Amino acid sequence: MHMADVVTDLKGRIDKTLDDLKRELTKVRTGRASPNLLDGIRVDYYGTPTPLSGVANVTSPEPRLIIIKPWEKSVLKDIEKAIREANLGINPMNDGEVIRLPFPPLTEERRKEIAKQVKTKGEDHKVAIRNIRRDANEALKAQLKDKKITEDDSKRLTDKVQKETDEGVKKVDEIISKKEKEVMEV
């Protein structure tokens, strides 16, 4: 690996880690009804597990309600079943036309619990970023040992690796604190 590639690779891996964190957090429930909560749900559509968005229109007309309108009424039961099996703690209400998902307000205790989970996800992703830093530093050490880079290059790139790592950790903190605020909102 070329010396500049080490830093490019590090940046790319840190970005992937941040994207992964953001994706995981879209599934975390806040007091608001977010259609993203349903992203992982697959509906049995003629024997094929299909994303919910592939069989229905999902909207959130008000902060505590999601409405799922299937393109074919025959899929209503399967959608309802998939939502129940997802254990979101929300009771789907099927009126034969649409499925309503009313979100009860979260209790203070539940919000604190969710905020704690959010913080844990953040910590896990910081660890991942630090592991990426370790890999990058080891790659630089190997290049120095094999005389592919000079001492000066090594020092400069190690500083750059640290700077990118600090930046990544700072972004994790920003993402987490924003999500914690959302969770704690009443």
TrEMBL record:
Q: What's one GO MF term for it? A: ribosomal large subunit binding
Q: Which UniProt keywords apply?
A: Cytoplasm, Protein biosynthesis
State if Protein biosynthesis is listed as a keyword: yes
> InterPro entries in the record, alphabetically?
Ribosome_recyc_fac, Ribosome_recyc_fac_dom, RRF_sf
**One cellular component GO annotation, for this chain's record?**
cytoplasm
Ribosome recycling factor domain location? 21-184
Q: Which GO terms describe its biological process?
A: translational termination
* Broad class of the protein's primary localization: cytoplasm
Q: Where are the transmembrane segments?
A: none
Q: Which NCBIfam families match?
A: frr
Explain the purpose of this protein. Answer: Responsible for the release of ribosomes from messenger RNA at the termination of protein biosynthesis. May increase the efficiency of translation by recycling ribosomes from one round of translation to another.
What family does the database annotate? Answer: Belongs to the RRF family.
Query: What name does this protein carry?
Result: Ribosome-recycling factor
